[in-house]
Design a protein that fits this description.
The chain is an alpha/beta fold. It has a single domain, classed as Alpha-Beta Complex (Spore Coat Polysaccharide Biosynthesis Protein SpsA, Chain A), CATH 3.90.550.10. The protein has 10 helices and 11 strands. The strands form 3 sheets. It has a 7-stranded mixed sheet with strand order 3-2-1-4-7-6-8, with helices on both faces. Strands 5-9 form a two-stranded antiparallel sheet. Helix 7 (173-181) packs across helix 8 (189-197). The two termini are 30 Å apart.
Length: 270
């Protein structure tokens, strides 16, 4: 199984938590691809995931299966070549969300990969998702909880995407997305671009990217931003590592064992 994460040093905790949740349920070889970049001259927080963090991630997955691998991919040069001038690189959403749009330019990426945001946790075996046949599709995903109302009934959430890289290269999907995002600022940037240009997509059941509440059949819980109408309109942005807020505001205790494991492995690192 091939998994792709993208981000900087700040969201490594999300990568580690996500991985710990995956290997709780999946014991076969796992190949992780970590897209990252170092571009401090553009933003002081644009610091790559460190080799030390990659080493920790590698040790965690090899404890479960010795054949598992972690590959760190520095895409700084590709980002500078294709996206650094994009007006979407400096919006409220980090430029690291754009890195997935460079996958077609990265050597060694398998034909089939599962892209995951760094705020998702597996509640069941994700091979239930990964084994979906997407031979005739560019990608598969789940409708966005809010976007399907405001952006269109088939608007996908891009935080969990099963990608057919062979087909994506044939159609030029990511090339089109990059060109579009280099022209103007776009709401929800790469997510909207993907939805705009994808021609062959498979819409999956909500259980594969549950954006509201864990159910018995949930495979992936995505802690994406939510909004509330009362007592006044406001956003709620609780991430998997916000343990106390998960308990208090979401009444979510489903991943306490993962959070405990995370605390243990990070303390051992220190």
């Amino acid at each position: 199984m091939n998994i792709v994460f993208a981000g900087n040093y700040k969201v490594f905790k999300g990568m580690l938590l996500g991985t710990l949740s995956i290997i709780k349920h999946y014991k076969d070889p796992l190949n992780l691809y970590i897209l990252t970049m170092e571009l401090k001259e553009q933003d002081i927080d644009y610091i790559a995931v460190s080799d030390e963090d990659i080493k920790l991630l590698n040790s965690v997955i090899k404890d479960v299966n010795k054949k598992s691998t972690v590959t760190k991919i520095d895409v700084t040069s590709l980002y500078v070549e294709h996206l650094v001038e994009s007006p979407n690189s400096k919006t409220r959403y980090t430029a690291y969300t754009l890195l997935r749009l460079l996958l077609d330019e990265v050597n060694g990426i398998p034909d089939k990969v599962l892209y995951l945001d760094t705020d998702v946790l597996a509640f069941n075996d994700i091979s239930l998702l990964y084994n979906t046949d997407i031979t005739n599709y560019e990608l598969a995903g789940v409708k966005d909880r809010y976007g399907r109302f405001f952006m269109g009934p088939r608007y996908l959430n891009a935080g969990v995407l099963l990608l057919n890289m062979k087909k994506i290269k044939e159609t030029g999907l990511f090339t089109k997305c990059r060109a579009y995002l280099n022209k103007k600022e776009v709401f929800l940037s790469d997510q909207t671009a993907i939805n705009k240009y994808v021609k062959k997509k498979l819409i999956l059941k909500r259980r594969f990217n549950e954006q509201k509440k864990v159910k018995d059949d949930t495979v992936i819980r995505h802690f994406s931003m939510q909004f509330r109408l009362f007592p006044k309109f406001h956003f709620v942005n609780i991430k998997p590592w916000h343990k106390e807020r998960l308990h208090k505001e979401y009444k979510c205790h489903h991943f306490d064992d993962i959070l405990d494991k995370y605390e243990k492995v990070t303390k051992e690192k220190l």
